[in-house]
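Progress note, sequence design subtask.
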């Protein structure tokens, strides 16, 4: 008598899904999703047992309780090594044939499961599925295999991917007898799975409106479902979660609950390499970043969007901050470090007499504008450059939606900005003194606000002429040095050009990653803070002041500006020389401490994406902008140069039409960022 083979469905489930946490317990018409799935699996006629394989950690406690309450068998195993978890479950429950189902398949089909089991037994196969060459809708993925091959895979599989996804080792082994079940019609484009929160809408609708024993075919044939749901998720690729980096999964998750996905536009992953950019960090040190999967990258990009001139986690600064935190960051009383940092900034800038502090650049810019308007008793402001997200600045686009096109972004949306601010802010281009002179004459300007230098240098004594016309017309001159301050020199960059403003703003670099911004200026203007309410609780927390003072002292000690200027100058020369060698038209711009480049081509945005793509393959975060830090040693920059030489050559071949850029891009084209011409 032949002993009957025991067939066990092992359902793979966990609460802590990256893209959609808690989806297995999400209530579908009042019942947790996983119980809906298990109810469907029970209808398989050829199965002998059902086991739910969950990770052995505290994050899945609630899931375990629900399963035990409903008397389902559970196996708890490795979080990452799911192959080992499956093997452990199959061994414990003495399975001979294993059916693998994942808990993101709410419409799993018991008839399809039975069909696959029968074929495996009849044909004496090692493995069968409908996923080798998918023709069934995504979400009906079913794999059936023998305990023998599972045991061997668990013993021999070495790759992390093979262990995380259970069956790749089996599917790729030529020694196993395998079979792929194909549907009569290729329906692989349809999604019946739950990867993200948007997917749950379809599940809710089906379980609410279809009869209890509905089939997946009914869902596909339903005209109303085609109309309402399928178009919503057409951008999602089949099984993309299997190869999607953890950072990208988190990015998908973020976009569901955070408008715009991130607090800072400049950190949007789609600006660099859509679908592949690591997106989130676990730790950072010197000029290296470790992502959520603990993969190490060299940062040849923004270095914290310009905040970390002295490198990430600078030991000398962090020691001071940690010491300060131990004595409390906040109290009912003030921190005397406010005074120490203010005195240091005034010592460096002899023309300034008083200081106010904030935490962010946008706040600091708004404070400076308030002070200047209060002093001059004039509302109108002339601006040049980028000065943040606040209403006063964006109101420029109320007059003409292209006003900020050359300072920030084309067609920038101004929804929510009060229309009464129209006609209060007037932009002018850098080095266009005649236009500035014109708007001063015509628009009753009380404030000139500008970046000292950004991508181009002053010509024809531009800064000195601006200072002169401001003085002659009793206009407050504000230099926004949130980005440039303490990078190109010790203090404000205006010192290099010998032009003192009435107010200056510093941010980013002065805290080396800790939040601190400063507004320094002449006493008669700064004292307007006593006549206009300017106050905020977290402007008084201590760590910003401690970090600011420690950062400035460290910069002075090692003369950081000399190092970053030298590094940036070298990189700019390399870009120019390499472009010339490869016969590429290039525009290298910016201060030595803030260099960037643009290749002059109609395919530039594609090339920019390609640069990030190819650098990332070498574990380098990079694009066309580089913020040098004191930690970018000669050895590090040499590595970058060697790789970039190959990328420039590749771009040259594309420009010569020997290679089609569209054929070598592995992701969608990166979205456009700030368009800075000043």
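Output:
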């Amino acid at each position: 008598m032949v002993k009957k083979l025991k067939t066990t469905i092992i359902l793979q489930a966990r609460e802590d899904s990256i893209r959609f946490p808690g989806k297995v317990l999400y209530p579908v018409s009042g019942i947790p999703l996983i119980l809906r799935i298990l109810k469907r699996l029970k209808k398989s006629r050829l199965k002998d047992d059902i086991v739910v394989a969950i990770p052995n950690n505290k994050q899945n406690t609630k899931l375990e309780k629900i399963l035990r309450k409903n008397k389902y068998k559970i196996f708890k195993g490795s979080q990452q090594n799911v192959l080992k978890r499956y093997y452990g479950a199959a061994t414990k429950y003495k399975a001979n044939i294993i059916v693998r189902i994942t808990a993101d398949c709410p419409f799993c089909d018991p008839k399809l499961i039975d069909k696959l089991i029968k074929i495996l037994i009849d044909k004496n196969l090692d493995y069968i599925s409908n996923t080798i060459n998918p023709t069934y809708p995504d979400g009906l993925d079913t794999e059936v295999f023998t305990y023998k091959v599972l045991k061997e895979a668990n013993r021999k599989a070495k790759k992390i991917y093979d262990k995380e996804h259970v069956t790749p080792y089996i599917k790729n082994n030529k020694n196993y007898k395998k079979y792929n079940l194909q549907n009569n019609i290729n329906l692989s484009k349809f999604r019946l799975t739950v990867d993200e929160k948007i997917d749950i809408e379809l599940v809710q609708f089906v379980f609410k409106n279809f009869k209890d024993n509905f089939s997946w075919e009914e869902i596909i044939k339903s005209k109303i479902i085609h109309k309402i749901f399928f178009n919503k998720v057409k951008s999602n690729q089949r099984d993309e979660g299997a190869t999607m980096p953890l950072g990208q999964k988190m990015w998908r998750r973020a976009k569901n609950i955070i408008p715009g996905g991130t607090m800072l536009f400049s950190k949007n992953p789609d600006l660099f390499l859509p679908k592949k950019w690591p997106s989130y960090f676990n730790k950072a040190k010197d000029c290296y970043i470790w992502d959520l999967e603990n993969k190490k990258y060299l940062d040849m990009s923004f270095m914290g969007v310009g905040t970390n001139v002295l490198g990430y986690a600078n030991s000398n600064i962090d020691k001071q901050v940690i010491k300060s935190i131990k004595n409390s960051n906040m109290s009912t009383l003030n921190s005397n470090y406010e005074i120490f940092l203010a005195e240091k900034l005034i010592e460096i800038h002899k023309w300034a007499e008083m200081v106010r502090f904030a935490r962010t650049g946008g706040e600091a810019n708004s404070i400076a504008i308030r002070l200047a308007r209060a002093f001059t008793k004039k509302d109108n402001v002339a601006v040049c450059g980028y000065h943040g997200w606040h209403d006063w600045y964006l109101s420029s686009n109320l007059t003409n939606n292209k006003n900020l096109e050359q300072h920030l972004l084309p067609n920038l949306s101004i929804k929510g900005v009060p229309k009464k601010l129209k006609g209060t802010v007037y932009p002018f281009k850098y080095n266009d003194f005649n236009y500035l002179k014109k708007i001063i004459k015509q628009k009753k300007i009380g404030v000139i606000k500008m970046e000292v230098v950004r991508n181009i240098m002053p010509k024809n004594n531009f800064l000195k002429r601006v200072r002169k016309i401001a003085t002659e017309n009793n206009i407050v001159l504000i230099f926004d040095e949130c980005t440039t301050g303490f990078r190109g020199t010790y203090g404000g960059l205006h010192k290099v050009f010998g032009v003192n403003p009435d107010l200056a703003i510093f941010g980013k670099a002065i805290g080396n990653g800790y939040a601190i911004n400063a507004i320094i200026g002449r006493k008669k203007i700064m004292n307007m803070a006593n006549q206009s309410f300017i106050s905020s609780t977290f402007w008084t927390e201590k760590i910003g002041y401690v970090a600011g003072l420690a950062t400035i002292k460290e910069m002075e000690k090692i003369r950081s500006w000399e190092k970053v200027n030298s590094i940036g100058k070298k990189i700019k020369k390399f870009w120019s020389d390499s472009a010339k060698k490869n016969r590429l038209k290039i525009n290298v711009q910016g201060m030595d401490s803030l260099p960037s480049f643009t290749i002059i081509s109609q395919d530039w945005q594609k090339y920019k994406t390609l640069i990030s793509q190819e650098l990332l393959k070498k574990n380098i975060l990079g694009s066309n902008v580089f913020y040098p830090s004191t930690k970018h040693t000669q050895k590090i920059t040499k590595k970058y140069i060697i790789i970039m030489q190959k990328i420039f050559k590749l771009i040259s071949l594309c420009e010569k039409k020997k290679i089609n850029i569209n054929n070598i891009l592995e992701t969608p084209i990166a979205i456009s960022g700030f368009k800075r011409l000043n």
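The first helix runs from residue 33 to 41. Work on this subtask will continue into the next period as scheduled.
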